[in-house]
Amino acid sequence: MLLDQYVFSFSQQFPAFAINTRNEVIWWNKANEELTGLSEKEILHTTEYWKAFFETKKPLPLDILLIKEPVLENQFQSLNFSGGSCFGFFKIEKGLQDKSLLWITAGRIFDEEQKLVGAMMSYQPISLRHLYWNSPLLLEVITRFPFPIAITLNGDITIANILYAELLGCHSTKEIVGKPFKNFLFGTDRALYEEIKNNQYRDMQTGREYQWKFAVGNEIRYVTQIPTIFRKDTDVVAVSTFIDKTKEIQKAKQLTEEKEKLLAVNRDLLKQLQGKQGFFVSESQLMENVMEKALRLAKSDINIMLLGETGTGKSLMAKIIHEAGARRDKPFVVVNCAAIPETLMESAFFGHVKGAFTNAHSVSQGFLEAAHGGTLFLDEIAELSPAMQAKLLHAVENKFFTPLGSTVQKACDIRIISATHRNLNQMLREKKLREDFFYRICVVDLYLPALRERKEDIPLLIDFFLNRFSGIDTPTILPKDILQQLVEAPWTGNIRELQNVILRYIATGELFEREPKQEREKKENSFDEEKLFDLEFCKTEAEKRCITHALSSAKGNKTHAAELLNMNLRTFHRYCAKYNL
After folding, report:
1. What's the CA gap between 449 and 61, in Å, rounded?
2. To 10 degrees, what angle do helices 494-508 and 480-488 make?
């Protein structure tokens, strides 16, 4: 049979017995016979070993080890179970040597094929005061325990292993045994422990974790104590294991300090950026989290994708990230991808030389060259065609590009910040967006919340627009009912829509036009009968009405309006510009 080595070393010296998996006694040593008065002959091959300790049948620790039900271990709060063995104090009903407390150690027994065949228990009757003297079994177990462990009696260290001594900065247990536990504590922890002691350890619970600071030379060690408490008359014994968490806590403190430094730098950056034209007016926690993430991203050079509805301030956020980053002194080039015709896209990005194509009468610098060393902000990036995505990806990855009509390569060191309100995952599924291009430009994404998601910012934004557009001396003041109406509005156009409403209010004193919608539409739909014979006029009016109706149906969302008309967004933008919509 195989058994835990630390039990083997003293199993013959102390009372001990073993049982098989059927709970039958298979070994009952001489020391056990002499202490319990039960001979090996009368107890061997029976299941009545409990009679040595109890008046009625009750489970012993080795029974729990055989059952292997962790939940049953809770019946023995004074024992430590670990790795198929246990040790600790065990209270019995029958007195052995006039003592009703045992210090026990128990373990499972395996055969050579590592099959569980039984369990063994060795024990020694003790009293709490007995801990002051040399208890061989107890001392052997504590000495061999693989973690820092110590036993205190009324606050004084009675037994400890070398691991605990080293934790306190000592070279042997002789330097700590007999000394008060509080002597090794640092600062206010001494007074705290003294208070617990004076209260008879009523505030200290078995199995609970207690955090202490130990003074070790010129350093502080952060240690977690997990005690098992025993009380007898006026004596209190604590059997405690200890975990050194110094490195863990120091690392956490270091991370906290670094975070505080980062936040301080961010606050300085915010002050600098607030002094410039254009900044997010906000006091919402949601927007504060977005801004904190944006400033963290600004310190790196990775490509960022800004997501959010139209009018949430993606262009402004891109500018803030550029201003807060290392490229702040370099160019910040804004490109509205939806406004560039497909035929001019390649020339716009890469530039061209004279004679590259018809009407190329001079050399033209492209966006990539203009943004060299700085940031290229690609607004409405989802409107780039897959072919253009491939060409742009090649230039960004290789950091070189060739202007149209040229054979000379030019350097292209840029950081790309992109923005869109489209569903990029859906575009990937529909093959409208190349995966390699997407993963290159969207290393990390940043979502800008819609205005309706941060309604607490609406009054601030209203005040900002009123002060900005009303005039310095006489800023317009909104009545409370109108302010409440604005706060509750859905704002599908977000901040841009709110700004336009405030501009209208400053100019007319009204949130919305007085003229009834029906009358306005009637006027829009009427014109001189003579013009009915003007084919070009009729065509223009039909286009304008069609675009206006689509915008109205889409509640101002140009992407949705373009989809309603089954029209490319760039084309739709050109129609809007043509009719000043």
Report:
1. 60
2. 160
Parallel, antiparallel, or unpaired: how do β-strands 444-447 and 304-307 relate?
Answer: parallel
Question: How far apart (Å, rounded) are the C-alpha atoms in residues 123 and 101?
Answer: 10
Query: What are 368-371's contacts with CB under 8 Å, separation 24+?
Result: 368/395, 368/401, 368/410, 368/412, 368/414, 369/401, 369/403, 369/410, 369/412, 370/331, 370/333, 371/331, 371/332, 371/333, 371/414
Instruction: Look up the pTM and report it.
Output: 0.48
Structure tokens at 434: 């190349």
What whole-number distance in Å separates Cα of residue 436 and Cα of residue 440? 6
- Structure-token pair, residue 84: 């198929």
- Give the length of the chain: 581
Residue 343 CA to residue 196 CA, distance in Å, equals 82
Contact 17, 28 (CB under 8 A): yes
Eight-class DSSP state of 383: G
Q: How many CB atoms lie within 10 A of CB 556?
A: 17
**Strand-pair category, 410-411 with 400-401:** antiparallel
Q: How far apart are CA 25 and CA 156, in angstroms?
A: 40
What does 457-471 look like in DSSP terms, one character per residue? GHHHHHHHHHHHHS-
Where do we find the tokens 């286009």? 543
pLDDT of the residue at 532: 55
**Cβ-based burial of 433 (10 A; exposed 0-12, middle 13-18, buried ≥19):** buried
Q: Which residues of 345-355 are buried (b: 16+ CB within 10 A; e: fewer)?
A: bbbbbbbbbee
pLDDT in tens, 206-252: 888 999 999 888 889 999 999 988 877 778 888 899 999 998 888 88
Q: From the CB of residue 181, how many other CB atoms can be counted at a distance below 10 Å?
A: 21
Quote the longest CA-to-CA distance of the chain: 129
pLDDT tier for residue 378 given thresholds of 50, 70 and 90? very high
Cβ atoms of residues 78 and 89 within 8 Å: yes
> How crowded is residue 451: how many other Cβ atoms within 10 Å of its Cβ?
23
Q: How many CB atoms neighbour CB 440 within 10 A? A: 16
| Residue 94 identity (one-letter amino acid) | K
C-alpha torsion angle, residues 205, 209, 210, 211 (rounded to 10): 180
Tell me: the pLDDT tens digits for 405-462? 888 889 889 999 999 988 888 888 888 889 999 888 888 999 999 998 998 989 888 8
Q: Give 122: exposed, middle or buried? Use CB within 10 Å, 0-12, 13-18, 19+.
A: buried
- What would the two tokens of residue 188 be? 């206010």
Q: Give the span between the Cα atoms of 494 and 477, in whole angstroms.
A: 21
- Per DSSP, helices labelled H in 399-456 are 424-429, 435-441
